[in-house]
Amino acid sequence: MKYIISLAFSFLLSTVMLSAQDAVDNIAIKTCSCLKQLDTTATLEEIEAKMGLCMFTEAAPYQKELKKKNNIDLSTLDATTGQAFGKLIGTRMLIKCPDQMLRLGNVATEKKAEATPIVDESLTGTLADVMTNQFVTISIKNSNGPDQKFLWLDYFHGEELLKNNSDLKGKAVEVFYTVKKFYNPAIKDYMNYNVLTGLRLK
C-alpha cells in the first residue's frame, strides 16, 4: 500500500512539474507563431513592444502555473517580474524557434546601428596628392604621422574645391570623414577606409 501511495504521489508531482514545463513551452511556441507576421520595417521600439505584447497575450491562460512554478506573478507586474518573465520565455523561444530568434536578433542589431548617429572625424593638414582611379582619393600630410588617404564616394560639402581647383595641392585643408569597412579582394577581408564627408580650406 505504501508503495502504491508513494508511486501515486511521485506521478502526481511529475505531472504538476510537466504541466508547468508545458506552460512555458506553450507560451514560447505561441509567441513564436505570433511573431511570424512581425513587420521588420518597424522601429526597434515597435518591434520590442510587439514581442512583449505577444508574450503577455499568450501567457494569460497560464498565469496560475507561472506563479506557482516560476514565482512570476503577471497580475502584479513590475520591472523585475517583467524582466524575469521575458528571460524565461525568451530562453525557451531560442529552443523552440531558433531561426526566428536569430532573425529577430539580426533585425534588432540593424535597427540599433541605424539609430546610432555617425559622428564625423576631422583632420587638418596639407593636401599632398589627388589620385584619380576608380574613385578619387586624396592624400593629406600632417605632423602627427604618415600621410592619410580619404575616398570620395558620395556628395560632401566642399567637393567643389576638388572639382574646380586644380591648384589645391600644397594648401592647408581640413577634411571631415567617417570610417567605413569595405571588402578588399587583395587580402580577402574587410578593411577600414576613410570616406570624405567634408572639405574646406584653412
Q: Percent of residues in helical segments?
A: 40-55%
Which sequence of strands runs across the widest sheet?
Answer: 3-2-1-4-5
In the predicted model, the low-confidence regions spanning at least 5 consecutive residues are 1-20
**End-to-end distance:** 98 Å
Order of SSEs: HHHHHEEEHEE
Radius of gyration: 29 Å
Main sheet makeup: 5 strands, antiparallel
Classify the beta-strand content into a percent band: 15-25%
Overall pLDDT confidence: 82
How many separate helices? 6
What structural class results from the helix and strand content?
A: alpha+beta
Shape: elongated
What is the strand tally? 5
Count of the separate structural domains = 2
Short description:
It contains six helices and five strands. The protein is of the alpha+beta class. It has a five-stranded antiparallel sheet, with no helix packed on it.
Topology:
Elements: H1 2-34, H2 44-59, H3 63-70, H4 79-96, H5 98-115, E1 121-132, E2 136-141, E3 148-152, H6 160-164, E4 172-184, E5 189-201
Antiparallel strand pairs: 1-2, 1-4, 2-3, 4-5
Helix pairs in contact: 1-2, 1-3, 1-4, 4-5
Key phrases:
6 helices; 202 residues; OB fold (Dihydrolipoamide Acetyltransferase, E2P); 5-stranded antiparallel β-sheet; alpha+beta
